[in-house]
Amino acid sequence: MRRAFSAALLLAALCAVSAPAWAQQSATSKQSGAKAKPSSAKKTVAAPKALPSWRMTRSAGVPSLEFGGPATAERVIAFSCQPGSGLVRVVSHVGSRGLRPGDGAAIRLTNGKAKFEVAGTAFSAEADENVDVGGTTKLDAKLFALFKTGDSMVLEVPGRKRTLPAASGRQAADALERACGQSSG
């Protein structure tokens, strides 16, 4: 028993003496760091939440104009086209009331006296219980005129109405109009 105790004591002494410099330095800096900064002095500031905005994107050659937050789940409305096709796809992601997937519904966009309506169909994504509305319309200057006057645009689907900042989307809407009008060949 005495031998076991002596061996343990000797092992502990060797470990203390032969500890690498980095281990001793780490232990020392932790102790001095704890003394230098009291825990009450640490304050974390939350990052500001990104505001919804207009974004012009292009995926697989398809130009899109979207309004929403940085995450796809925060998308409010999206416009996309196949260049040279003469068609624009409009999808409202604000949800709707009183519609079931497959029901016909209109997407109405207004900005002052400028108005544009897209005949659409209600749909629901598997991951989302919201019933959204999407439709395709002819490429029309009246759609892009909604961005050219006034500061805001109203998006309306059955049971929902949302005001969007039109002025901040003017440049992106002009870029989408040019991209949609280009020949795909």
If you compute it from the alpha carbons, what radius of gyration comes out, rounded to the nearest whole angstrom? 30 Å
Please tally the helical runs, counting DSSP H or I stretches of 4 or more residues.
4
- Multimeric state of these chains? single chain
Helical fraction: 25-40%
Q: Judging from the principal axes of the Cα atoms, what is the shape?
A: globular
- Element pattern in H and E: HHEEEEEEEHEEH
Count of individual beta strands: 9
Largest sheet: 9 strands, antiparallel
CATH topology of the domain at 53-181: Immunoglobulin-like
Strand order of the largest sheet: 1-2-3-4-7-6-5-8-9
Layout of SSEs?
Layout lengths: L1 H16 L3 H16 L16 E7 L2 E7 L6 E7 L5 E6 L11 E8 L2 E10 L8 E7 L2 H5 L6 E6 L2 E6 L4 H12 L4
Antiparallel strand pairs: 1-2, 2-3, 3-4, 4-7, 5-6, 5-8, 6-7, 8-9
Description:
By secondary structure, the protein is an alpha+beta fold. The chain has a domain at 53-181: Immunoglobulin-like, CATH 2.60.40. The protein has 4 helices and 9 strands; from the N terminus they run H-H-E-E-E-E-E-E-E-H-E-E-H. It has helices at residues 2-17, 21-36, 141-145, 170-181, and strands at residues 53-59, 62-68, 75-81, 87-92, 104-111, 114-123, 132-138, 152-157, 160-165. It has a 9-stranded antiparallel β-sheet with strand order 1-2-3-4-7-6-5-8-9. A hairpin with a 6-residue loop joins strand 2 and strand 3 (75-81). The longest helix is centred in the first third of the chain and has 16 residues, at 2-17. The relative contact order is 0.15.
